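Q: I'm building a small set of examples for a reading group on sequence design. Run inverse folding on the following structure and report the sequence directly after it, with nothing in between.
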């Protein structure tokens, strides 16, 4: 099929020309889609949020409807521009970020989905991953990622093996499969070749990290024909043109949510570790060259004129999602107030083995059972889950230090960072200054910075200085001993 060439756009205009420039940021997450407009100083001036559904079936399956996600993006874009009124014309660029490891299959000819979106939380392809264990070291060296059902490759293989519609499209040479970002961005931009950004592509575990190209060897290991994958977009050019009603604007940046969050306050300072506490938790240290550390990921970040950026990264699957699970097992909904009561209680919380959705960095075990050390009240159980996230953050930083050096400070963002008690415990446990970002929408603001370029106003937030906390330190030691004992038990 022939496609008309797209108009070209420089996504990073000169600073003096953007005093009135605005960026439309579309942030597609697990529970909602947000459309936010930022000005050239990094200030949010309009916001619209639309809820989206997740379908859960058992402990392993988490799906979303791709058409619902696409419709939510269009709704957010139209509504937030309507809020701007006469300033809508100042939107000079748009950006899109999505859940990095979520994946689906669709028809190249019609653009219609052939499968649901398999969420990054989905682990239905565990059997395919276990069959590749003898190749785990090679896969990690090429992709930078640990062999895990959370990444896209095993999900894509499952779609090809299990869904008749997907196999039929492959036989008709009409199949495209890959990251959620590729499907959404191409649909939003109208007719054109199926493309995806390198950051989202890297979370399929099919991209060779250091070459930033699809890897024939990884595709062969996972049983994926490279012809089924979208082409990789040129990182130095615009992705396409976003159509919003009768208006259109260049889609300058497409990337993953956590990859954008790194840039919420501009280029990360040397010695800073960024911790985003959302549905999952992500610990990242920005690098100019890829580094390796046992049990951690080497992730691709959006690059610039100086070349690619990388992150040494540790992922924690159960943060906000584990707190929601903890409340649901008691027949209630998670609320920040319940957590605050647990953190403020005089009684010590129990310990929690945080294997919710699988134990990720730096231990990588999907077969452990999430459990508490002893019964407790609902509030104390929530406190135990929150502390387990902090204990895992400390384990990740321990693995980072030999490769990247001791960090100077931690910047924490995401919904759970709104708990001052939790931030203080993080500072006490890590014995590092913790700064809570003043911008709750770290992902969106980081994407705006990538779109607009130039310095944003600093968002210095509240600082938490480390204190002596022997009770927390003792719980962390007991938790680590219990975890090591569980990891060393026969499977």
């Amino acid at each position: 099929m022939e496609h008309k060439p797209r108009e070209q756009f420089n996504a990073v205009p000169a600073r003096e020309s953007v005093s009135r420039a605005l960026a439309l940021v579309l942030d597609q997450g697990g529970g909602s889609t947000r459309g936010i407009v930022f000005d050239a100083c990094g200030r949010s001036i309009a916001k619209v949020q639309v809820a989206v559904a997740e379908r859960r079936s058992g402990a392993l399956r988490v799906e979303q409807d791709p058409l619902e996600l696409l419709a939510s993006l269009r709704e957010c874009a139209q509504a937030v521009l309507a809020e701007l009124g006469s300033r809508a014309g100042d939107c000079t660029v748009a950006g899109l970020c999505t859940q990095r490891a979520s994946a689906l299959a669709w028809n190249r000819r019609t653009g219609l989905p052939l499968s649901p979106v398999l969420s990054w939380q989905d682990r239905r392809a565990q059997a395919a991953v276990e069959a590749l264990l003898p190749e785990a070291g090679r896969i990690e060296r090429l992709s930078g990622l640990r062999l895990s059902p959370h990444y896209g490759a095993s999900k894509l293989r499952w779609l090809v093996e299990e869904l008749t519609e997907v196999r039929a499209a492959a036989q008709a040479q009409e199949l495209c499969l890959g990251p959620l970002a590729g499907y959404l961005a191409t649909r939003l931009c109208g007719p054109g070749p199926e493309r995806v950004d390198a950051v989202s592509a890297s979370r399929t575990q099919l991209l060779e990290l250091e070459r930033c190209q699809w890897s024939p060897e990884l595709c062969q290991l996972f049983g994926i024909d490279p012809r089924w994958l979208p082409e990789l977009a040129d990182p130095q050019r615009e992705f396409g043109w976003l159509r919003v009603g009768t208006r259109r604007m260049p889609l300058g940046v497409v990337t993953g949510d956590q990859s954008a969050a790194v840039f919420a306050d501009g280029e990360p300072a040397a010695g800073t570790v960024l911790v985003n506490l959302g549905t999952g938790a992500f610990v990242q240290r920005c690098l100019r060259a890829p580094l390796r550390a046992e049990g951690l990921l080497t992730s691709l970040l959006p690059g610039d004129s100086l070349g690619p950026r990388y992150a040494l990264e540790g992922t924690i699957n159960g943060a906000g999602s584990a707190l929601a699970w903890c409340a649901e097992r008691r027949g209630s909904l998670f609320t920040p107030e319940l957590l605050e009561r647990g953190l403020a209680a005089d009684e010590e919380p129990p310990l929690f083995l945080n294997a919710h959705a699988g134990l990720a960095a730096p231990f990588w075990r999907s077969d452990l059972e999430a459990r508490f050390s002893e019964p407790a009240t609902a509030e104390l159980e929530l406190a135990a889950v929150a502390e387990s996230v902090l204990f895992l953050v400390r384990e990740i930083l321990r693995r980072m230090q030999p490769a990247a050096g001791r960090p100077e400070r931690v910047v924490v963002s995401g919904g759970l960072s709104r708990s001052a008690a939790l931030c203080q415990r993080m500072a006490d446990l890590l014995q590092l200054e913790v700064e809570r970002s003043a911008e709750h929408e770290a992902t969106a603001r980081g994407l705006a910075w990538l779109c607009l370029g130039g310095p944003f106003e600093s968002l210095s937030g509240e600082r938490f200085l480390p204190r002596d906390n022997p009770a927390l330190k003792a719980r962390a030691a007991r938790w680590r001993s219990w975890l090591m004992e569980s990891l060393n038990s026969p499977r």
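Confidence is low (pLDDT under 50) at residues 1-18.
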